[in-house]
Amino acid sequence: MTLLSPGIHHLGPTLPVHVLQAAEPGPTALVEGGIHGDEVAGVHAISELLEEGYAPRRGRLILIPVMNPAAYRARTRAAPGGLDMNRVFPGDPSAPEVERRQAHALFSLMKAEDPALIVTLHESLKRFHPEVPLSFGQTVVYGVRPMPALVQRVVDAMNAELQHPYELWAPHYYPVSTSSTEVIVDALGCVGLTVETWSGFDEARRVQMQRQVVDLLLREIGVR
Ligand SMILES: [Zn+2]
User: Fold this and answer.
1) End-to-end CA distance of the chain
2) Tens of pLDDT along the chain (224 residues)?
3) Angle between helices 180-188 and 98-113 (to 10 degrees)
4) DSSP-assigned beta bridge partners for residue 139
5) Which CATH class for the 21-221 domain?
6) How remote is the CA of residue 197 from the centroid of ligand 1, in Å?
7) How far, in Å, from the CA of 122 to the mean position of ligand 1?
8) Scanning 48, 157, 160, 185, which has its CA 20 to 30 A from the CA of 94?
């Protein structure tokens, strides 16, 4: 499989993939939102970046605003009657379920692109507490140890500019064996992270925080 040309491609009729390429060569990064349809801040963060002409300084930046369009339209975690798309990786091109086919399409794309970093944008109903494993807002989640060093640097940068004490960010180790990040990380050896904001904040602030974390991560990897 060859690299995608710069421009807009599709993994499905309503699943656009935006490929942005800098003149200067460099690493490739992928940022994906909306794999869970009720976690909207990441979808809107990526959409805003695209509308504003956000571009890589070096290398390639692949942006997927809505990985699960039917779930996003319904504003539910999975599409009505469908599967949790973040639990079906690496997917299957001949499966009857669209989630498995689209997961496989993303997985194949990533194998061809060989990114240095993949980031998936999520949201959490619970604010992070170190003793509560299923609490994620706000965290940068990694599923493969050791923790990539950039995680702490990005968390520290976010915590230097809190607008409210509840916004506190933390690194969070939480492996999910069939998630998009982890399956791709295992297959490619890249850095794979999940960004989680707490859904208790206003959407505008969640979108702002997601944008900030994405930009910090892309600077760390050398794409911005
Ligand atoms: Zn999620």
Assistant:
1) 26
2) 678 999 999 999 999 999 999 999 999 999 999 999 999 999 999 999 999 999 999 999 999 999 999 999 999 999 999 999 999 999 999 999 999 999 999 999 999 999 999 999 999 999 888 888 788 889 999 988 899 999 999 999 999 999 999 999 999 998 888 888 888 888 888 999 999 999 999 999 999 999 999 999 999 999 99
3) 30
4) 170, 196
5) alpha beta
6) 10
7) 4
8) 185
Report d(CA 139, CA 167) in Å as an integer.
10
Joined tokens for residue 96: 């009857």
Domain boundaries, the chain: 21-221
Q: How many Å lie between the centroid of ligand 1 and the Cα of residue 2?
A: 30
The pTM of the full predicted model, rounded to 2 decimals, is 0.96
CA of 35 to the centre of ligand 1 (A): 7
Nearby residues for ligand 1 (ion, Cβ within 5 Å) = 36, 39, 122
